[in-house]
Amino acid sequence: MNLSTLQFLSQSRQTPELFDKKMTMALGEQTSVSIFAPGIIQFEPVLAQAGADAKGNTLKAPKSIVLSCGIHGNETAPIEICDAIVQDLLAGKLSSPHRLLFIFGNLPAMDIAERFVEENLNRLFNTNESEENMEQKRAQVIKQAVAEFFDNENKPSSHVDTDRYHYDLHTAIRESKNEKFAVYPFLHGQAHNKDQLRFLSACGVNTILLSQSPTSTFSYYTSYHYYSHSFTVELGKVRPFGENNADDFAAVTTSLRQLISSESLDLPAYQACPLEVFEVKQVIDKSSNDFRLTFSDDTPNFMDFSEGAVLAVDGDITYTATQDGEAIVFPNANVAIGQRALLTVVPCEL
Ligand SMILES: O=C(O)CCC(=O)N[C@@H](CCC(=O)O)C(=O)O
Ligand SMILES: [Zn+2]
After folding, report:
1. CATH number assigned to the domain covering 281-347
2. What is the pTM of this model?
């Protein structure tokens, strides 16, 4: 296989059978490339594997960085950003001192421009190992690739001393008052990392939601099992392939490329970052086909409500805002029964 002419994403979508077996190849003299499966590719610096440069000097340990996109097939902007980065790495236009794993999540859903084919892939990152449909099978393949990449024999002892990173890139169904935002998965009492928020701010992501409980999302999975600095990052609104405005993604594209290509980053001070932090107040699951939201489909994420305002009705159950300023995020009445249909958030201090 000629890596310099490989069109990794488009060939993964068009001829996935090419990548059915794991393969490892050299990319020039500096980089080893492993393809785990269609849409899953790793880049690893050869010298870093040996731990020393040509003169025998010990090298700084490389970061291990996972960039995932297309976990929802119609969230195209992150897919386009990661596709361009992978193409530049393969063509030798970009190089990295770090270990990189790119995951293009739901390839069949990309082809039909849908969030998923049979089941929401971002609700399958838990201990369940069923393989009854395409998304369940894909979740197992992704989990296996991540396990090999992070290699828990060398697991850090906490989130404090980790050099593992996972940015799961998405776009949202609705407009958002705060256009770019990130979900910081529940850390089970460990401290939130301000350097990570500085990096997200450099990406143009200045709104952070602190999750308060375990979830079955990909970012919670890597955070919990591998102690990576993990985030679900929402970069804007869902649009079809080719309809994303590159200017809207310039800061995140530049910052991700710097993260990949530099030993260390020059980030603004935490105090200088215009961050707004929220904590999740209510996680509202749909429990019946009678579930409905009380606000219109064009109500944006982060619209806030007064205490007592009715947000959703589910048969006999009425969900209301519990305090003034409680805001809605990810409202979706069309989810499967048992799944999250709405989050509410309130401002908080880190
Ligand atoms: O806009 C929406 O309603 C959904 C956008 C999206 O896919 N969000 C993620 C968030 C995952 C998390 O909470 O960490 C999802 O719902 O899977
Ligand atoms: Zn998504």
Report:
1. 2.40.50.630
2. 0.96
